[in-house]
User: What shape does this take?
Amino acid sequence: MKANRERTGPVRRFFGLPTARGVSGALGELALWWLAGTLSWLVTVSTVTVPETVTAVSTALLGAMLARMARRAMGFQAAAQGIWLRWAALVPLAAVTDTVRLAGWLTGPQEETLGEQPMPGTRQPRGRGWRAGAMIALSATPGSVVFSSDPVMNRIRVHVLASGWPDLERHIASGTG
Assistant: This one.
């Protein structure tokens, strides 16, 4: 005979990665954060040495633990979405073109904008994840940075130093790739 147990409090759907439950999900998430942090560090150094690698691995492990804690505290679902892949494909192209455009800043004063843009997403956990991905993509280029977000009005404030093709800002604001 099964005992009828009452549950109290919210039921957590997953512990770590959305597709893996329990300890394996938590370890999988930590491993992904750790790998991403280590690779991010190592691709920015001019020479990969043993001390640099040890520093990258140890710092990325701490960063992975903090990233997991922050993700859980923020209450958003960061499940990968197809549109993020399209944005991620545009980021390197936008970074190169922004860098070339920013070379013009060396010759004297240039135009810059500080404006609000519509932001995709909702106030639901999945929508917050959507907004986080969009803000990361916009801030990953040297030509723009997101400095505030208003999730109630679905707007962000972006400081843009260089804009133009491939129009990453427009793609993100419209929710397309």
About this structure: Confidence is low (pLDDT under 50) at residues 1-16. The helical segments are 22-42, 50-74, 82-102, 125-139, 168-174. The two ends are 55 Å apart (CA to CA).
